[in-house]
């Protein structure tokens, strides 16, 4: 039988903060505190303020929260120690606990133990991961606390419908004199179950997307306004904008919220023939990142029209969904181009809403 270690880990983020929280979980969690100079009887659901001392050295003063098995997150004895933020205090305390016999928790091990100890189901455990990784409010709201999680409720509801239908069919076979087989009812119930599963699948895509974020790449020839559009979408001056060709030489990326979905958008170097080593490297990065892109937004300059150079560059994007955008509509006269496109002005914001709607459509965020 596998020995269940007492595990320890920092459960707050790395870096500077007011408070860091360390969690211990396991049968020996309470005893481990004796190695930090705490020798007293611990009561369940109580909070203590104590000096944390190891081998005669004062490590920090901490707030200690005690949760006795099975009434804890993992179902085991759990202790949470709140100490001063930053890396020094938490690192020293965790090192002392590991020297005393604790093992550093593996990634997700607290939640895994919670699942193994029957404190939460598999869907609830996955919901924890989705919530931690959520980058938008819509995604977070779709992974609310397990007891009120609509996804779990829908799964249970579908399961009950399938069991009821199975029972009806089985009963009509076993007791044909008492229960009449109703083909119309069976067909109707099956259709309803399929519709419920289909609806659930579509709703679950937000959770899936939260861990598999779409990537939108702004691309096109030089000086077509990619960086201006990038800043316009972000509603902030993130990229340097200049009339000089080749200003953007590296990949710049940011997260945005589109219709409740987290999306990474990338500004890239303009495509052109150049002798500049830096620009060439920027273009190499562009074509590398396009391999993993979900969507490309290809910009051309409406003042110049759709040129042969634009056509050659666009033809390199055959294996990826593309939205063709004519930029600088505020400066250019309306004229017919040989390619279907959206007209926008990244400077004035004209047509940006249409572009966002097209992105939603292309990424199936409207389903």
Radius of gyration: 29 Å
- Can you give the helix content as a percent range? 25-40%
- CATH topology tier name of the largest domain: Rossmann fold
Give, in order, the helices and strands: EEHEEEHEHHHHHEHEEHEHEEH
- Counting DSSP E segments of at least 2 residues, the number of strands comes to 12
What is the CATH class of the largest domain? Alpha Beta
How much strand?
Answer: 15-25%
What is the total domain count?
Answer: 3
Number of helical regions: 11
Relevant CATH superfamily of the largest domain: P-loop containing nucleotide triphosphate hydrolases
In what order do the strands lie side by side in the largest sheet?
A: 3-4-5-2-1-6
Could you name the ranges where pLDDT drops below 50 across 5 or more consecutive residues? Answer: 240-249
In one word, what is the shape? flat
How much is the average pLDDT?
84
The CATH architecture classification of the largest domain is: 3-Layer(aba) Sandwich
Class based on secondary structure composition and strand pairing? alpha/beta
Short description, anyone?
The protein has 367 residues and is α/β, with parallel strands linked by helices. The protein is 37% helix and 20% strand.
Structure description:
With 367 residues, the protein is α/β, with parallel strands linked by helices. It has three domains: 7-119, Probable tRNA modification gtpase trme, domain 1 (Gyrase A, domain 2); 127-210; 215-362, Rossmann fold. The chain has eleven helices and twelve strands. It has helices spanning 29-32, 88-99, 109-116, 122-133, 137-141, 150-174, 183-211, 226-234, 277-290, 308-314, 352-362, and strands spanning 7-10, 19-25, 47-54, 57-67, 78-84, 103-104, 215-220, 252-258, 261-267, 295-301, 322-327, 342-343. A six-stranded mixed β-sheet has the order 3-4-5-2-1-6, covered by helices on one side. Strands 8-9-7-10-11-12 form a six-stranded mixed β-sheet, with helices on both faces. It is flat.
